Amino acid sequence: MKIFKSADLIRKSKYISRDLSWLRFNYRVLDQARDTSRSLFDRLKFMAITSSNLDEFFMIRVGSLYNYIDYGKERVDYSGLREMPFRRKLLDFAHRFINDQSMTYLNDLKPQFEKNGFNVLSLAELTEVELKKADGYFKNTVFPLLTPMVYDSYHGFPMMMNQMLIFGVVTRTGSGDIEMEKGQERLTFVQIPQNLSRFFELTRRDKVLFVPIEEIVRANLPKLFRNVEILSADLFRITRNGDFTLEESDDIDANFIKEIQVGLKTRKKGRVVRLEVEPNASDFLMQVLRERWNIDNGNVFVISSLLDMKGLFQILKHPNFRGKGFKQPASVPPLSLPETVEENLFDYLKHQDVLLHHPYNSIDPVVRLLEQAAEDPHVLGIKQTIYRLADDSRVTAALLKAAENGKHVSVLFEVKARFDEERNIREGARLEKAGCFVIYGVSKFKTHTKMLMIIRREGEKVTRYVHLGTGNYNEQTSRVYTDVSLLTTDEVYGHDVSEFFNVITGHSQPDEYEYLITAPKDMRQQLVCLIREEVKNAKKGLPSGIVMKMNSLEDKEMIDEFYKASKAGVPIRFIVRGICCLRPGRAGLSDNIEVRSIVGDYLEHARMFYFHQAGKPKLYAGSADMMVRSFERRLEALFLIVNPQLKREAINILYYNLQDNQNTYVMREDGAYVRRTPVEGEAVSDLHKEFYSRNLVVMPQEALYDDWLSVANIQASSKDANGQPKEAVIVITPEMLPPVPGEVEMESERAQREIPMSAGSDYDAQEEADLA
């Protein structure tokens, strides 16, 4: 059998395609929807997430690819493919995923609806009484909102809204049509407004019925086309390119915000990159849409199940089913912050640093500190970066109160936070009106770092209270995202953060920081130096090792450094939730590298970087992933954890990430993933449960400090040369981690090879010609 050059290039490349890696990540999310050990409502949640993820993927990643294609720009993917053959490979994979997604919904989930107290029904399955209620809903609510828009030689092609359900209705004119000849076909579009619920809800005895809105509209289309023959009515949905490029100027005030707002509008009318449509759609309709939007069969996805599965969230929010999914335990106190410290966090933080591990520890101490600062007469000022906020944010409320109380408040709102731009502009305007000093972005860089500084007068001196984290100041996402953050009054952190704020808000270029590594200054270079130190130690026969946890690993320069370290014998373990462009376990290239991904009840969001340093480990945490954009186009910061107890807590976090065998997928050399399960005799380890039971009493007795004698040797003695207690040191050896047992190939990984592609995926040997 002939092997296409594209497959050969992909196999030989030492890098994994970023976009193909992302689709594999969404397969891991889909695998959660197929997990029969979960409740149906949990599985529906993950199914809806895969749909939401895919919408963003097409808007941003596929949209970005089309920016190159449409404007004739060259692009070579990490896999080695040029833009056109890569487009075919990517859309091929997307077709396979969407087919798998549909089959999961139809075969695995929908049959479970009835016995769980609800069902999704068509109009044909409703009783006469229920049909009357549906008709009443259409007449009173839906009908007044519908606006048929005809397209013919007299009427221009109407604007189709992004990700809206739309009917393409083909009609045949009668003798009374004054504009068209009798018998001629016409095409009309009916868009279903997005402020209508995805489903119409009914109750049948003890069950809730959900009727898709398109069922009701379809049945009532004759009321919109009176005395006209309807030949076909097909539901479709489009996704437009949402990856717009901003040409930013040095003047980044009102003009800059206007550019953002213009960019937001382009999302509504950008080029179409995906067309989802019901099976057996009208040939006339499809020909018009293909020609109008310059798309081919690769962009057309025939959906045999439910268009826009994000609507499944409506089922989960129904009062009858709230609380039937994952039951999140109550948060536990941070190991370094007693529950008794409620009234005055300022007094406690003067003497003790605190490490928070969200969502196991609530974000409440950070928000309370900010609220106390707003009211405290000794607080002089507050400086903060904001990337994403919660609805009805307590953070914004506290900053407004601080400004009202006459404190100096400086806030950097990142208005380029994707899909939160409008909210951040609105919240920034509120703060400005209250008297806050608001900065909307910094030149060409996106401010992604998470930091807060409170300046407080205490007697004759001023103390800086600093918060540094890996996650956003968002009370909502902090309950489902895993992150770490640090509260401290250490003067070194205070000085470093002050310097960094001067970089953000002014024109300053400090020579160096003591506890921070920042981008775009020199983060990549400093991380490379730390990796090379591990290489030197390995070559000297000293213990070495690297453990990193992040969202994405994509930067080629860093990947090449990791390959060099692997060849030198440095054991490297990555925990990468999403995109990973590094190829692990390739002989002679990355033999000593292992990559894991954790996907489960919480979204793994923390970034933590451990370097063994020959027995004196350094551990950084912060906002940056290993991505080009993080190093070159964002303001990012990693902070060194220096407090011995907090460092031990952070190492403990990494350890349990590596021990997990309930939410972990292990990456193979070919880029596919296998799910890890416990082998016989191995204890079940679920990190999303373990952290609710960690405490200082048991932590020193955990496996981290016992079993790692063969995994990470513990070298500790009671006193050092000066007679002082010596900190326990974790020494990582090449056998740092046990082999990954119980690897089970994901069913969805097999499915992507076995399930036939949807109609229209007719890619063939033409890719040979495009490789040149």
TrEMBL record:
InterPro entries on file: PP_kinase (IPR003414), PP_kinase_C_1 (IPR041108), PP_kinase_middle (IPR024953), PP_kinase_middle_dom_sf (IPR036830), PPK_C_dom2 (IPR025200), PPK_N_dom (IPR025198), PPK_N_dom_sf (IPR036832)
Residues bound to Mg(2+): 388, 418
Taxonomic superkingdom: Bacteria
Domain Polyphosphate kinase N-terminal, first and last residues per copy: 15-120
Name of the protein in its database record: Polyphosphate kinase
Family recorded in the similarity comment: Belongs to the polyphosphate kinase 1 (PPK1) family.
NCBIfam families: poly_P_kin, PRK05443.2-2
GO BP term (any one): polyphosphate biosynthetic process
Enzyme active site: 448
Record's catalysed reaction(s): [phosphate](n) + ATP = [phosphate](n+1) + ADP
Cofactor(s) needed by this chain: Mg(2+)
Residue segments, region Disordered: 739-772
Function: Catalyzes the reversible transfer of the terminal phosphate of ATP to form a long-chain polyphosphate (polyP).
UniProtKB keywords: ATP-binding, Kinase, Magnesium, Metal-binding, Nucleotide-binding, Phosphoprotein, Transferase
UniProt-listed HAMAP family: Polyphosphate_kinase
Originating organism: Hymenobacter psychrophilus
Residue ranges constituting the Polyphosphate kinase middle domain according to the UniProt record: 133-315
Pfam families: PP_kinase, PP_kinase_C, PP_kinase_C_1, PP_kinase_N
GO molecular function, one term: metal ion binding
